[in-house]
Amino acid sequence: MNWPEIQRRIPLPLVGCLLGVGSYLNLAYPNNSESATASAARAIWAGNPADATAPLLQALRLDPGSPERWTDLAESFYETGRTDDARYCMAQAILRAPGLPHIAMRAAGMYFRLGDTAAALRTTTRIFAETREYDANVFQLWQRLGGPAEQVFGQNIGADASLGRNYFDFLVQSGDTAAVDAAWSALEVRNMAGLAESKLYAESLTGERNYDLAASIEAGILPQGTMDGGFEGDFANNGLGWHRDSIPGVAVTRDVRIRYAGNSALRLEFDGSSGNEFNHVSQTRALAPGVWSLRAMVRTEFQNSRATSPGYGNDLRTSPGIGLRIVDVESGNLLANTPRVNVSHDWAPIEAMVVITPPHARLVRIEVIRPAFSDLALRMIGTVWVDDVTLLRKVHS
């Protein structure tokens, strides 16, 4: 039948309709790798992973250079129990993706599922040479599937101290206590644990109420017994280091002009408007059994007339005064209280002893304290400086 005969026997509108449907089908279901992959996805979504293999093979034939197509097929083979084929396809994907970290991530996941932890760890190592954007994803794989921390450090981290510290930080944030302890041991064996890691581990241990080990860690990083006893850095407001909370009537800052030593000191400005207790600058420490000395240097300039005579002491008839104290965090009991400076005075030391009884360390809080008062005639108006705060163990001969 020639074209003129077709034209005579089939109405042209019907021919146009057929051609239109054909064009639509070609657009909706093109014969390319993307459509084959979409067909495989529909089979997987329908719960029929075996039906996904054929379209994925077709997608690979149409686009054999694509690492994504090789990876898709590897995962399909794995789901249907063809593990040797899955491994082969995964190797082909890696060959075609030397600079694609997302393919390496998929490959590592596949090797973990295949039970080949060594291959998975080797594959994740490639990612760090290409980008650091996948650190959290890789660390999560290591934590969940990489085995003991010593294995991860031995096979993947090696001598890369920065990588080891980052992994340790990730584990601490995850709250995986056992993994954190194991990673700490691996850091120590390799001499990778610096001040930041020691501080982070000590904070983690206090969160677990393991005060004995926390105290031993802190003893190695706090030669003066406090973190930043000279107020050289900004307030930490978490973990070790000084916490600062706001309270009406008191301005809390660091003073770089007036200080006893170093480059700065704590500056407290009291305007006399509040009689509430001030204990809003503090830090916590795990303290081992023994006798300890809490010491600080304090300078005061009071404006009110009842606080201008020389000297200092605990005379609450003149003003509440400013000092330091140590409180047991868990019980709230007062463990030590220094004399309080309650008159204008140049730099002078204040000191108190605290005894931690055996057998266990205790979590304590060091506070800069001005007690509460109700008599406005005793109010403090003026400026206080605190510097060089130490908490040192007393050595008996």
Describe, in plain words, how this protein is organized in 3D:
It is a single chain. By secondary structure, the protein is an alpha+beta fold. It folds into three domains: 1-25, no CATH class; 26-221, Serine Threonine Protein Phosphatase 5, Tetratricopeptide repeat (Alpha Horseshoe); 243-393, Galactose-binding domain-like (Jelly Rolls), CATH 2.60.120. Helix content is 43%, strand content 20%. The protein contains 14 helices and ten strands. It has helices spanning 3-9, 12-28, 33-45, 53-62, 67-79, 83-95, 101-113, 117-130, 135-145, 149-157, 161-174, 177-189, 195-207, 211-221, and strands at 243-244, 250-255, 265-270, 278-287, 290-302, 323-328, 334-337, 345-356, 362-370, 382-393. The strands form two sheets. The chain has a five-stranded antiparallel sheet with strand order 1-4-9-6-7. Strands 2-3-10-5-8 form a five-stranded antiparallel sheet, with no helix packed on it. Strand 6 (323-328) and strand 7 (334-337) form a beta hairpin. Helix 5 runs antiparallel to helix 6, helix 7 (101-113) packs parallel to helix 9 (135-145) and helix 8 (117-130) packs antiparallel against helix 9 (135-145). Mean pLDDT is 83; it is low at 1-30 and 305-317.
